[in-house]
Amino acid sequence: MEKQFQQLLQKMNEMTIEFGKQNEKLAATITANMAETMDAKLKPLQEENIQLKKDVKEMHSRIENLEREVRKNNILLHGVEEKEGENHYNLLETTINTLNELTKDGLVKEFDKWEISEVRRLGKRVDGKRRPILVKLTLAWRRIEILKNNKNFPANTYATEDFPKEVLKTRRELKQKQKEEIEKGNNAIIRYNKLIIKGKGNEKRKRSPTKSPGEPTNNSEKRPNQKAPNKINKTNAFDYMQRPRTNSMPETGKK
Q1: pLDDT single digits (tens) 26-74
Q2: Residue 20 burial (CB count, 10 A)
Q3: What is the pTM of this model?
Q4: Collapsed DSSP state (helix, strand, coil) of residue 139
Q5: Which class in CATH covers the domain with range 72-162?
Q6: DSSP sequence for 232-249
Q7: Is residue 187 classed as helix, strand or coil in its secondary structure?
Q8: How far apart are CA 69 and CA 144, in angstroms?
Q9: What residue spans define the domains of the chain?
């Protein structure tokens, strides 16, 4: 009886173990099926999400390029006095007068109204503070001319480029890196929102000095005993054409 009980108990243990294995297999199968089902449903969503991110990135790049194109002829005038009751017309006149300060040395041509499409102050008016003036120029080369002649403006007046806020933030962050590169002896400049490092200034490629025709070349200095090639006398064909004819006749016809 006890033996039968032990056999029955062993059989129950085996069945329990087998039942556990069956449950594990069933759970694994269900999990795998669910994973496959979820993957099948999520895959299109993942692909769509990747495409949306790509589209957003391209759209952001287009917006940046468009904004850069819109601002390419703009400058900001800083430090220009803000008069009481200022309006568009007297602001335009003030702007032109300020820009014409650059023409006193005769290197810059005077500015006219048609060269400016829009002028306006930026920000809210605050007592004792001179707001910058946004100047939209019609000619790109005039903008470059203004920025190159900043030193000729009156004291505390200067012009800067019109950058978006994100670009201004990036440029401020790059200023420190630029300073570090310059301290290393490198030529570092900031162009729009990128830092360009051109290497050390003393590593620039130098052009070899040009020698005059009378100076000996390196080859002749290294080989001083080298003989010059024999001179070839060339006959000018025109010398024969210009020789005077003789009056003698050929004697072949004489008898």
Answers
A1: 788 878 877 778 777 777 878 888 888 899 989 888 888 888 888 999 9
A2: 10
A3: 0.57
A4: coil
A5: alpha beta
A6: PPPPPHHHHHTSPPP---
A7: strand
A8: 15
A9: 9-68, 72-162, 164-203
